[in-house]
């Protein structure tokens, strides 16, 4: 018995295709209403409900657009009201800036005097070191030659000792010159009063120091004066009568005395009542104010800041 295979019957099914696309990223939000979900659709998107007729779909889309525009306008208003404040959170207000400036000014006012005081102390320490070097050089010269490093004119003008720079701070006629000739002799420079090395015939260099041009701190190559860190020549008194004591042109004066350590009164002789230092060399600096007054006490006024090697 032959079984005939029945031919399969082909059926056509009607089908309509809709091309749907999404051009916006998905953003997770909180609970949303159906209207909000519809409003999130792009304008050109077709609704997936194919059962709705064309007129009904258009009505829903228009309503969704109106719903979508409300939060947009509200968000713009909120941004205008509060967005600027949020952006200003990273900056400073005028009051904050003025407060910071005031604090900086107060700190500067407190620190500047301290820094200035530290600078003056450093200069005073440098002056003491330079004066100590000068004293050592003078003592070495005296040990080498048996006399002080002074010119013939200084030896003749001694009373009984000699102060280089006795008119410093208040120049008047008749006062001794600055310390240049002493420096020339100690550095063995071939210029007067040591021309042809007549005050240092063995040509020993007893003093070496920083050389500068003009009236600056150090030994000037212009006038050969040795100046302190404030730019004022050192005052140097030499024992010229070999008693190992110094009568300085300033500090010998009774008007300057006020329990100054290191100086003792002369008890007898032509200089009784004056004050002397029990050392063969006496060196000091006028200090920060660059002034001295032999008619004021040594610890007052312009004399208060003088830097004294023996103290």
Description:
The protein is an alpha+beta fold and 311 residues long. The chain has two domains: 39-84; 128-308, no CATH class. It is built from five helices and nine strands, in the order ααααβαββββββββ. The strands form three sheets. It has a four-stranded antiparallel beta sheet with strand order 1-5-8-9. Strands 2-3-4 form a three-stranded mixed beta sheet, with no helix packed on it. A two-stranded antiparallel sheet has the order 6-7. A hairpin with a 5-residue loop joins strand 3 (218-220) and strand 4. The longest helix is centred in the middle third of the chain and has 52 residues, at 94-145. It is elongated. The model is unreliable at 1-7 and 170-174 (pLDDT under 50).
SSE blueprint:
Blueprint: H1 34-39, H2 54-88, H3 94-145, H4 152-157, E1 162-164, H5 180-186, E2 211-212, E3 218-220, E4 226-227, E5 235-238, E6 263-265, E7 275-277, E8 281-285, E9 307-308
Parallel strand pairs: 2-3
Antiparallel strand pairs: 1-5, 3-4, 5-8, 6-7, 8-9
